[in-house]
Amino acid sequence: MKLVIAATGASGSIYLQRLLDCLRPQEHEVHLVLSEPAREVIAGELEELRIPPGILTHDDRDMNVPFVSGSARFDAMVVVPCSMGTMGRIAHGTSDSVILRAADVFLKERRKLILVPRETPWSLIHARNAVMLLEAGAVLLPAIPSFYNRPQTVQAVADTVVSRILDQLGVENPIAFRWAE
What are the structural domains, with CATH classification, of the chain? Predict the structure, then answer.
């Protein structure tokens, strides 16, 4: 599978880290793009992002990457965490960065685009942007953890969200808790 993983300036860097930890670059081609605000949030929340070997990294300003063109075949894109500002810019077709242009391409090509917002509460503007994105074909997967598996650590709580992302990608999911299994 060919995947684009992006992060913007919302809190929730742990979700990005755990997703990167669970993806296997030896099995999937994984491209990573971080916005400048994402880098600042990561520094504050994690100090440093551990990028597994084999994951390809790109600058959010370098439009010379394959996944910003509809002619390049990619399977899915995940923006985790996704700020409400990014959601709004994607909903309105703003494409002035690699992340925004790639999201626009994934929508227009009808490829899977998964947005993981972590903002709460939502304003009416946020809700309307969410509806526009759903109507355009995006998957909105808010970072809302579950607790029926009784997670004992912060990582285990984060994994409840990351597990849902992996399921949406159709990627093998070693961290999933399956109800009644």
Answer: 2-169 (3.40.50.1950)
